[in-house]
Structure formats: structure tokens, C-alpha cells
Fold RNA polymerase sigma factor.
Amino acid sequence: MEQKDDIYYIEKVLAGQTNYFSYIVERYQDVVFSIALKVLRNRDDAQEMAQESFIKAYKSLSSFKGTAKFSTWLYRITYNNCISELRKRKIHFASTDDVDLKDEAEEVNLDGIPEENRAKAIKEAMDRLPEDEYTLILLYYFEDQSVEEISKVTQLSESNTKVKLFRARKKLYTILNEMMKDELYTIL
């Protein structure tokens, strides 16, 4: 359904009804901004990069082939723009290979935490992840992108995407566990 909706609006824009592009911007602006913010770590830069990503997507819309989801294509544009900007600035960006993780995934029990606090805890834990891990978690769990789609966005092989996603999930669990222990310690 999402793919057909996007294709419908893309066809309208390509047919000259450019006002339909606002649907696309409205639909994807939060995730595009979130990816840019996590990679660039600056709100103003992220807003500018999100705008640039939509402009680039608009100008390149005729090159969208529809073989993958539009969202995958748009996230790829955003991610590439951000990485290019970082390279221009010569800012080092962390790799999951540099992170020392335990061999076993730790389970986090969030059942006793009210729903509104759960969302806050997960957001806070995700904010502690490096940008590449944050992006993987965001795309997989919150944007329902497949491993294949994520590999296209990040230009990693599918197997490398799976490994990095697994490591990111383990790291998120570790962060959440530490947060829960700290919270319990402060209560006691």
C-alpha cells in the first residue's frame, strides 16, 4: 500500500503537478531529519541537510526506478548527503567494529515500566548509540525496512548489515540494562 501511495504521488509530480511533492515531504520529513541529526549531531545542520535531501530527491525523481521502496531511495540520498558533508568537514565517524560488545545478548525487561516511560527510555538509549548503529536500528525497527533495503541505504553487504544490526541491538540492550540498573539504584 505504501509503495502504491508513493508511486501515485511521484507520478503526479513527474506529470508536472509539483504540489504533490509536499505529500512526500510531509510523510518522510521526520525520519529524514532524524537520520541527518544522528549523523551530523547538529540540529541546524540536520535541518539544512534534510532540506537538501528533499531538493535532491525532487530533482532526481525521474531517476527513481521503483525497484525498491521510495523510502529506501530517499533515505539513501539523505545518508549519502550526510556522509559527504562529514567527509568535507573531515569528521571521523565511528564504526561498529570499534565497539567491544559481550558475546551474549542481554535481555531487557521493560514490562514493569509504563508505556510513556518505555518510549522515553528507548529514545534515550538510542541517542547514546553511534550514528551508524542508530541509523540501522531506526530503519529496521521504526521504519520497517528490510535488511536488503537497509543494505542499499548504507551501502553495506546484506551479511554485514545483519552483523552490524545484531551488534547495534546488543549494544542497545546493554545501554538499556545499564539505564535500568542506574534507575533502580537511584530509587533504592
Q: What stands out?
A: Residues 96-187 form a domain with the Arc Repressor Mutant, subunit A fold (CATH 1.10.10.10). Residues 1 and 7 are 10 Å apart (CA to CA).
